[in-house]
Amino acid sequence: MLFSADQSKLHYKRLVATLFVFLYAVYYLFSLSDWHFIDNVNLIIHEAGHSILFFLGDFIRISAGSLFQVLIPTLFVAYFFIQKQYFSASLLLFWVGQNFVNVSVYARDSVVMQLPLLGGDNVVHDWNYMLMHLNLLGSTEIIANGIYLLGVFIIIAGCVLSLFFSFEKESLNK
What we know:
Helix content: 55-70%
Number of helices: 6
């Protein structure tokens, strides 16, 4: 038999969405110092993390910004995965990876503290505070590079999985 009972069908809309996300990811990775539209959403989530966990003490409250920034998109990925919507889950991995990359930029800034922060110069720089309290300020580059590489890996995984899930098995007997 020339054709099997099951064949893959390419979903062009999924392929276009994957291509768009991949191109945006490449653009994002080469323009980390720019403000991107997705940063508006991420900033709200980051700041919400500080507000939601304020009662757990200064260290947790301060670290909750970056924690929420990667946790919330991860929860969206988990939701779509549980719902067996694997393409949506894989496409949203870009958002998780992008947040890791974004957090790495903030972590890398912990020594020089040049990034503009909400509230101006009189606010605490989250990563400076955390790394100083953990006695890891001297390891800023290693930590920031590790977070960055994890983010890039997640972005690549999301793009590859999205491409994979752009093909859906479909029975010829329908």
